[in-house]
Amino acid sequence: MKPLMLHGHERSVTQIKYNREGDLLFSCSKDTEPNVWWSLNGERLGTFKGHTGACWCIDVKWDTSSVITGSADNTVRVWDCKTGACLHKVDVNTAVRSCGFSYSGNLIMYSTDKTMGKECTINLYDLRDAAQMKNNEPLLTMLVSGSKVTSAIWASMDETIVSGHENGDVCKWDIKTGSIVKTVREHSKNVVDLQMNEDQSMFITASKDNHAKLFDLATLDLLKSYKTERPVNSASISPIKPHVVLGGGQEAMDVTTTSTRHGKFDARLYHMVFEEEFARVKGHFGPINSLAFNPDGKSYSSGGEDGYIRVNTFDPHYFEFEFEF
Amino acid sequence: MDDSDENGDVIDEDYVEECEEDYSDPEDFVDDITDEELLGDLLRKRPKETDGVESCIVVDNIPQVGQDRLEKLQMVLRKIFSKFGKIVNEFYPKENGKTMGYVFFEYGNPNSAREAVKMTKGYKLDKLHTFEVNLLTDFDKYSNIPEDWEPPEPQLYKDPGNLRHWLMDNDCHDQYSVIHDGGDRTCIFLNTPLEPRMLEERAKWTETYVRWSPLGTYLATFHQRGIALWGGENFRQIMKFSHSGVHLIDFSPCEKYLVTFSPLPDNKDDPQAIIIWDLRTGIKKRGFHCEKDSVWPIFKWSHDGKYLARMSPDTLSVYETPSFALLDKKSLKVTNLKDFSWSPSDNIIVYWVPEDNNVPARVVLLEMPSRKELRVKNLFSVADIKMFWQKTGDYLSVKVDRYAKSRKDDKGEVKFAGMYYNFEIFHIREKQIPVDVVELKEPIIAFAWEPVGSKFAVIHGESTRITVSFYTVKSDNQVSLFKSLEKRQANHLFWSPQGQFCVLAGLRGLGGVLEFVDTNDVTVMNGVQHDLATDVEWDPTGRYVISAVSWWTCREDTGYWLWSFQGKLMQRHAIDRFCQVLWRPRPPTLLTKDHMKEIKKNLKKYAAGFDLKDKMTQSKASKELIEKRQELMKEFNDYRKKCHDIYESLADQREELRKGQVDEQESEDLEEETIEFFIKEEEIIIDSE
Question: What ipTM was reported for this prediction?
Fold first, then answer.
């Protein structure tokens, strides 16, 4: 089916996310204004105005009541989804690379960059205690001593956080103790994206080392590995089929020297268990920065360095296709 | 020491005075000092009988002549041997007035003698007389052999096993070598359907690259200290050739000799730049110096490996095997010689010389070893010439770049204008070798003969408008244009080793476009692309083609793809830091022409059997794949079941955290919501009338 092209961002899209129902698609980009769209027809519902720098990350609460964004303007903002009003603003001393709501939506998490002599940290706030954000007194600050965090998500319930690091490490943190429970090194370069499956028992990593890998969330055991020829910027797990979708491509900085075809900006669909690629979706003329399956599993969206978001709805053929086994 | 010496140290003045008067020995004095002690150093310099022996050489196998021709012989020999130093003495032993077939020469110093021995040993004076030269001192050495001397044990013959083992493969699959991991790992694969089978993998097998010998018997690996050859069933080491810094190698077509080249500084007296080895014994046959600006291969072999030739300014030197001496002891003088090549099937050399003032450029066919000029073709207005032999030696195509005008620019370099091009086609097998001319106005990008057959293909045109033309040489020797393919993206031509099929490739700059052409009717069977492809190689049977992207020229997407001869993609191998792939050559077929004809006639009968076999391997492979997948799926499903159980058990906790959320499982009957979107506004003015 012809994809919907959402062109509301003036610069590269950095992250996209669906809400739990899948009717809304949230996106943020380097142009400072996160957007929210109707996923069904690609109409823009609204914009969150306020950031003054590139926006790196976005997340939406399970009940779609509020949205959190992190930006290079050294702030984290929590917005009212309905009105677009900024509910909270936290000043941070560096750019914010990743942020997210916990399972309950009561806690928020964000990670900071290791720049200008500032240490990389993961910070937690309890939204129920308004004073914490107002006075900038986090519930918990976890200092990341080694390689800096390049991606982080809430893991099981409200108890753990999983972080991906610049050196390829994947760590699991216990927020009760504020320390690392386990570290695995399966990647050789930055882990730039982490996404959970629908029942939160597994997660998939996307790394600049051209691989995406599937892990068990409880044990951090490596389950599967998906190999490509280009850096992988994002990977998402289908909620209804044993499929994963990978997106990435030649690094943005090298793109000018190569043709679109050579850059390999296609999204690739792999069988989750057999690790075999079975389809490619063309379209972006720059690397894909973020991918997300619609929670209904019938479509997925990709946001690219080219500034476009493409909503791809699967053809009937996709649902008929089965691997022989 | 004796007393007198000790006294000498404690001489007092009285004693000196005494001694001044009388130097004679006292009567009872006994001279017990030996001459050696007194003037040993002088004695050692005393001329000896054997002095000068080291500077003497003996030359055997010289002609036996009488007094009348002795002077002439002496002149000839003096000329040869005075090159190594001044001859201070010569002696021709005679018997009955005739020389006895050997001569003694004495040089001014032993170095000259040694040099003379080295350089003239085996010198061929004429057909009957090959010099045997030795130092005179060697005779002592050889005559004083200790009595308990034992002859060295003959070296046991080392059985290298069956070196043709790879040809015994039941299904006649071909092998190829692959270097990957940036050069650290080398593998040998068997080209089996679906997936290649790895036969051998070794780390650091070679330091740079590998090469197969022309008949496929040996695999040569390159090392700082020399070349190693591998072969037989398990790729065991067959031979080593120690040549420091070796860079390039070349096998003789018969696989008897190996030529190696090292760019390291050469030894002036003992040429080391190019070494020719006997491949089976590992013995160095001869070393050569390398001149500047040489193009590899410096030595070109005749098709049978009998001769090898090299070019140097104004000379063409042909050497013969196994002596590696100059053929007929002299080089060919060819003023301004530009290039030469051997026919791939006969001992014929073709060379060309450019124009010189009013003398036209010439292309000359020379028969070896007779040096008879078979054909000379004069050409005018020649800027450059390239020569292409057809593989069976039936035709020679000479590409001539010609100009309308030429002038010298300020720097004295010649500039040409109004270029046009033609091919001079020599019909070697015809009487007097007639020549046909094919003219083209456009620049030639590539040219190639069909290896078997009488077609050739030319890529010509400017970069935006490239045409590929196929020509045929008819039985009446007329060369005619068969068909042209216009507007192509190609800069290389690769004919199937069996002829008929041809791959047009746009390598490197042209993005890896590949077109598989059947030249019987010049149709493009398939047009495909392998992004950034750097190399294309046919397998030796003409059944498969490999296109590759090498890490040596391209940092990304390295790997190789395997195609059928019709351009169907069979296998795709993306390999990190893949460097080189080379098919293992096959020796020529043992079937006679009649045999082959018969097989072609009954092809259908044979094909049925092979089709069945293919089907079986395929179904077996797909069965294996399905079994593997079933196992993976089962394992994964077990894992997922555990996950699901855990998920179920945590339902309460989830409910606790998200108060108000209805778990998906419990709410199958979701409310259907109708959403209306405003899509288009249309204004239709209804006519009021």
Answer: 0.85
